[in-house]
Request: fold
Amino acid sequence: MIGIITVIVYILLAIGIFFNILAGIGLLRFPDVYTRLHAGTKCTTFGSIFIIGSVIILGLKSWYLGNVNGSVLAVHSIGALIAILFTNPTGAHAIARAAHISGVKPYGAIVDDLEKRKPATKKTTKPKVKEEKA
Amino acid sequence: MIGLATEYFIILIILSLAAIMAVIRIVLGPTAPDRVVGLDTVNTIVIVSMVIFGAAFEEVIYIDVAIVYALLSFISTLFIAKYLQGGDY
Reply:
C-alpha cells in the first residue's frame, strides 16, 4: 500500500518536472509572443497540477499514518493549486489581449482577422513597440 | 516526518533551471509582452517551488506564503497587461 503510493508520487513528480522543463525550453525556442505564451503558461500550469498533486498525496499518506500535520499540508496545497488554476489562464488571456492590442503581430502572419475588432474605448496613441526581429 | 526530502531538493534544483531559462527570456525578449510572459512563468515556478519547500521541511507557513504570492502576482500581471494595451484606466 505505502510502496504503491511512493511509486505514484515518483511518477507524478516525473511528469511535473518534464512539463516544467518543456516550458523553459519552449520559452527560449519559440519565435513569437503568442507561441511563447502557449509554452510558458500551459506547460507550467499542467506541470504544477502534478507536482502539487504529489504533495497532496504525501500529505494524505502522512495523515493516514497518524500525523495530524499532514492533513493541514494537504488542504493548504489544495488551496495553492486552486489559486494557480484560477489565476494562470486569466493572466495569460490578459497578456495575449494586451500584446495584440499593442500591435505585436504573430510570426509569419499575413492576414490579421482581429484587426477590425479592437475595442471602442481604445485611445489613438499606441505605446511604441519595437518590431519583431524574428 | 513526511519523507522524500532529498528528492524534493533535487526537484527544486531542476525547477530553478526552468526559472533560469525564463529569466534568459526576460533579458533577451525583443518586445515588452515577451518579458511579461517570462515574468509570469517565473512567478508560477516560484509558487510551485514554495509548495515543494513547505513539503520538504513540513512547514505549512511556506504554502500560505505561496497562496498569497499567487494572488499578488496575478494582480501585478493584470495591471502590466492593462498598462501595455493602453487606453483609459
Remarks:
- Chain A has a mean pLDDT of 84.
- DSSP finds three helices and no strands in chain A.
- The two ends of chain A are 53 Å apart (CA to CA).
- The longest helix of chain A spans residues 69-101.
